[in-house]
Amino acid sequence: MTTRQQAATAFEAAAPLFTVLADPYRQQILLDLGTTAEGRNVNEITEKLALSRPAVSHHLLLLKQAGLVAVTKHGTQNIYTLTLKASIHQIRALMDLLEASCERGNH
Q1: Cα–Cα distance between 22 and 92 in angstroms, integer?
Q2: Structure confidence by residue, pLDDT tens digits, 51-74
Q3: pLDDT at residue 102 greater than cutoff 80
Q4: What domains appear along the chain, each with residue ranges and CATH number?
Q5: What would you report as the CA-atom Rg of the chain, rounded to the nearest whole angstrom?
Q6: How many Å separate Cα 71 from the centre of its chain?
Q7: C-alpha pair distances (Å), 102 with each of 5, 10, 44, 106, 107
């Protein structure tokens, strides 16, 4: 497989991640979770956004499915924290492939 084909495959694999990251509310949630190592529950996140609790829960589910947040149960509460390492690795690998593909084309 050529570098260009590898980059195309990496783009395809990363497309859901980019879709999740494109939403401004999800960006706000990620930025907010980045300010705390302890994480936040859905009520704490809802207080900071102009969204309903069900809407925040939906955004958190999408972020969890994309591997950007993790959820742990503390009593009756779900606590959400950032889990960016795999996503950052995926994006870096894509950028490396893209860079290698462009260098071969002298761009």
Answers
A1: 17
A2: 999 999 999 999 999 999 999 999
A3: no
A4: 3-101 (1.10.10.10)
A5: 17
A6: 14
A7: 12, 15, 44, 6, 5
